[in-house]
Design a protein that fits this description.
The complex is a heterodimer.
Chain A (H helix, E strand, L loop, with lengths): L21 H35 L4 H4 L13 H6 L1 E2 L2 E2 H32 L5 H12 L4 H13 L7 H8 L4 H12 L3 H9 L4 H12 L1 H17 L2 H6 L8 H12 L4 H33 L3
Antiparallel strand pairs in A: 1-2
Helix pairs in contact in A: 4-7, 4-8, 4-11, 5-8, 9-10, 11-14, 13-14
Chain B lengths: L17 H8 L3 H7 L1 H21 L2 E2 L7 E2 L3 H8 L1 H32 L6 H14 L3 H10 L5 H8 L14 H11 L2 H12 L3 H9 L4 H29 L3 H6 L13 H11 L3 H29 L8
Antiparallel strand pairs in B: 1-2
Classes of the chains: A mainly alpha, B mainly alpha.
C-alpha cells in the first residue's frame, strides 16, 4: 500500500542511469493519479457526514431526511430560528458562557503551568525528580478518580452552577499534560540565555518573565489552542456542574435541545450543532500550523 | 519512560563563569516551591485528598444527604452480582479492543500513503485531521444520532443499493458498533503523530536496503515498523487510556441511558448514572477506583510488554 520509491529528484537510483525511461515516468505518473484519486475519495467519505450536517442546517426540515443530496433545492434559516431558544434563553447566552469558561481556563493554564514548568525544568531543589514523576503519572490519571469528592466539596461550598469548579483546577496546574509539554520545551531553550541574565543579576522571577516566557511562546500557543478546544468540547464536567439554564455552556445546551426536542426537526438539531462547531473551526483555520505542530511534538489530541 | 519520542535531545551545555554557576546550581528550595505553589496546592487539594477521599467513600454507603456509613467491602462485593456493572465492563472492553487497533491501523496506513513527498500533503492532513478535532463534541454525537437513525444517512445510502437497513441505534447488536465507527473515524490525531515520526526515519537506511535489493514490503517490515515502534507504543497508550474514558458519544447517542439493553453503557456512563442520577456516591466511588485500577494495570502492562517489541535505537534513552 505504501509507495516507498523516493522521488527521483532527491534520490537517483544508485544502480541505473539518472534519467528515467519514458515508460517508467508514465507508470509513476499513473501511480500518482491513482493515489490522489484514492485519497480524495476517501477524504470525501470521511468528511461527508460533516458536509451533510452543514447542508442540512440550511434545508427546510421536511427535506432533511428525504433528500440525502448535498445540493439543497431550498435554502432557509428557519432551523436556526427554531433552535435559537433553549430552555427560555437565546443561544448567544450559552456561547457567552462557553467563551468566558474557555478564556478563564486558558489564563489559568498559561499562568499556573508555566510557573510550575519553569521551576521543574530549571531550578535545583530537593524532590525535583519526585515532582517530575508525579507530573508524568498525573498525565495518565483519569479524572474519575477525583471526581466525586471534588463534586461533594464544591456542592457543599454552594459552587455548583458556577464556573469555579471548572476553572479553579486550571489555576492550580492540574492539567499535567501542559506542565509536561512546557517542561520539555524549556529544556530545549539554551541555558546560556538564562545564565547570562543571572550574571546580570536578575532574580529567578525576572529570568522567568523576561527570558524564558518570551522564548517559550510556541508552547504557550499550543497550550492556548488545546485548552480552548478541550474546554469547548468538554461535556462531562460541564454536564455535572452546570445544571441550570442561565449557566449552560454550548455542549450542555445542545444536549438539552436533544432531550427536549427529539421529536422536533432534524434540521434544527443540525443547525445548532453546526453553530456550536463554528468557533472550533475558526480556531482550526487560523491556528492550523501551530495545531499540527503541537500534536506532532506532544501527541495532544 | 519516554512520552515524547519525537523530540530531539537538549543541546549540550557550555561552561559559564563560576560565580553565576554557583548561583544557578545552588539549591533553590524556597523559590522553587514558591513558583510551584499553585501546582502543589492543586496536587494536594484537587488530586491527592480527593483521591484518598474517594477511596474512603468507596467503602461507605453515601447518598450526599446523610453522612457516609462505613460498610467495608460491600460496594466491591456488590459489583460481582451487578449485571449492569458487567455489561458496562464488557461494552467498554469491546469498544477499546476493537476501536483502538482499527483506529491506529487507519492512522498508520494513511500516514504511510501521505508520507514521501506527496503534493498537497497539508490539505489532506487537515482534512483527515478534522474529525479528530470535532469527534468528541456533543455536536458530532448529535450528528451520529441522525446518521445512524432509522431515516439516517447510512440507511439512505444502503437503500440506494437496495439493502434494507436497520435502526442502528435502537438495535442492541449494532448500537455499539456505531460508536466504534465514530472512534475509528477520529484516526487523524494519531495519524499526524505517525507522519511526524515517519519524517524522522533516516533515508540512508532505505537507500542501503534498495542497494541490497530489498522489496518494498521488506523495507516496510524491516525498517519502517521497527523504527516506528516507539510512536506506535505512544499512540497505543494514549488512545487506550482515552477510549477507556469515552463518555460524551454514548451519553448523547443513548440519551443518557446507555441503551438499548445497556449495549452502549460505557463504564464512565455507568459511573455517571450511579453518582449523579442515583446519588449512590459510595458505589460510584468504588466503580471509579476499579476504573483507576484497570487503567493503571493496563498501562503498566503496556510498559512491561513494550520491552519486547518497542525498539528505542541507541540514540537518546
Amino acid at each position: 500500500m505504501t509507495d516507498l520509491a523516493a522521488p527521483p529528484t532527491t534520490t537517483p537510483s544508485p544502480a541505473g542511469p539518472h534519467v528515467e525511461s519514458a515508460s517508467a515516468t508514465r507508470a509513476r505518473r499513473r501511480g500518482e493519479i491513482v493515489r490522489h484519486t484514492g485519497l480524495i475519495l476517501f477524504g470525501l467519505l470521511m468528511l461527508y457526514p460533516l458536509i451533510w450536517m452543514a447542508v442540512s442546517a440550511f434545508k427546510p426540515s421536511h427535506l432533511v431526511l428525504t433528500d440525502p443530496g448535498l445540493i439543497p433545492t431550498e435554502l432557509t434559516l428557519d432551523n436556526f430560528r427554531a433552535g435559537w431558544r433553549v430552555a427560555g434563553y437565546p443561544f448567544v447566552v450559552f456561547f457567552g458562557n462557553s467563551l468566558v469558561l474557555a478564556v478563564s481556563c486558558i489564563v489559568g493554564n498559561l499562568v499556573s503551568c508555566s510557573l510550575t514548568a519553569y521551576a521543574l525544568a530549571r531550578m535545583n531543589f530537593r524532590a525535583r525528580k519526585l515532582y517530575f514523576g508525579i507530573v508524568l503519572v498525573s498525565v495518565m490519571l483519569p479524572m474519575h478518580a477525583t471526581l466525586i469528592p471534588q463534586y461533594i466539596v464544591f456542592s457543599e461550598l454552594d459552587m455548583v452552577n458556577t464556573f469555579v469548579p471548572l476553572v479553579l483546577p486550571k489555576f492550580l496546574a492540574t492539567d499535567a499534560f501542559f506542565v509536561f509539554l512546557m517542561i520539555q520545551f524549556i529544556r530545549g531553550i539554551p541555558r546560556e540565555l538564562d545564565q547570562a541574565a543571572w550574571l546580570d543579576g536578575a532574580g529567578p522571577f525576572r529570568v522567568f518573565w523576561h527570558v524564558i516566557l518570551p522564548l517559550m511562546r510556541p508552547a504557550l500557543v499550543t497550550t492556548t489552542i488545546f485548552t480552548f478546544i478541550w474546554t469547548w468540547n468538554d461535556f462531562f464536567g460541564q454536564l455535572i456542574y452546570l445544571t441550570e439554564a442561565p449557566v449552560y455552556t454550548v455542549p450542555v445546551a445542545l444536549n438539552a435541545l436533544v432531550d427536549s426536542q427529539s421529536a422536533q426537526g432534524t434540521g434544527t438539531l443540525m443547525a445548532m450543532s453546526v453553530l456550536s462547531l463554528v468557533p472550533i473551526l475558526c480556531f482550526f483555520a487560523f491556528a492550523q500550523k501551530h495545531l499540527i505542530r503541537g500534536i506532532s511534538t506532544t501527541g495532544l489530541k | 519512560m519516554t512520552l515524547t519520542p519525537i523530540r530531539p535531545a537538549t543541546p549540550a551545555e557550555t561552561p559559564v563563569p563560576r560565580r553565576a554557576r554557583r548561583r544557578a546550581l545552588g539549591r533553590q528550595d524556597g523559590v522553587a516551591h514558591l513558583f510551584m505553589a499553585p501546582w502543589l496546592v492543586g496536587l494536594v487539594a484537587i488530586t491527592l485528598i480527593p483521591m484518598l477521599a474517594s477511596l474512603y467513600l468507596s467503602f461507605t454507603d453515601y447518598n450526599i444527604l446523610s453522612a457516609p456509613t462505613f460498610v467495608g467491602a460491600e460496594n466491591y462485593e456488590r459489583m460481582l452480582d451487578d449485571s449492569r456493572f458487567w455489561a458496562s465492563a464488557r461494552v467498554t472492553l469491546v469498544y477499546v479492543l476493537v476501536s483502538v487497533p482499527l483506529q491506529l491501523a487507519f492512522a498508520l496506513g494513511l500516514a504511510l500513503v501521505l508520507d514521501k513527498g506527496l503534493r498537497g500533503l497539508p490539505v489532506y492532513r487537515s482534512a483527515y485531521y478534522l474529525p479528530s478535532l470535532l469527534g468528541t463534541s456533543v455536536a458530532v454525537a448529535v450528528l451520529w444520532r441522525q446518521i445512524f437513525g432509522h431515516d439516517g444517512l447510512v440507511n439512505q445510502a444502503l437503500g440506494f443499493f437496495g439493502i434494507e437497513g436497520t435502526n442502528w441505534l435502537q438495535n442492541p447488536s449494532t448500537a455499539l458498533s456505531t460508536l466504534i465507527v465514530l472512534n475509528v473515524w477520529t484516526f487523524g490525531s494519531p495519524m499526524v503523530i505517525f507522519l511526524a515520526g515517519l519524517r524522522q526515519l533516516p533515508e540512508e537506511l532505505y537507500e542501503a536496503a534498495r542497494v541490497d535489493g530489498a522489496s518494498v514490503v521488506r523495507q516496510f517490515a524491516s525498517i519502517t515498523v521497527p523504527l516506528l515502534t516507539p510512536i506506535i507504543f505512544f499512540n497505543l497508550i494514549l488512545q487506550t487510556i482515552g477510549s477507556f474514558q469515552a463518555f460524551t458519544q454514548a451519553h448523547v447517542v443513548s440519551g443518557g441511558t446507555g441503551g438499548p439493553v445497556d449495549s452502549t453503557l460505557f463504564y464512565t456512563l455507568y459511573i455517571y448514572q450511579q453518582a449523579f442520577v442515583n446519588f449512590d456516591m459510595g458505589y460510584a466511588s468504588a466503580l471509579a477506583w476499579v476504573l483507576l485500577g484497570v487503567i493503571a494495570v493496563i498501562t503498566a502492562g503496556h510498559f512491561l510488554l513494550s520491552r519486547y517489541w518497542v525498539f528505542y535505537g541507541d540514540s537518546d534513552d
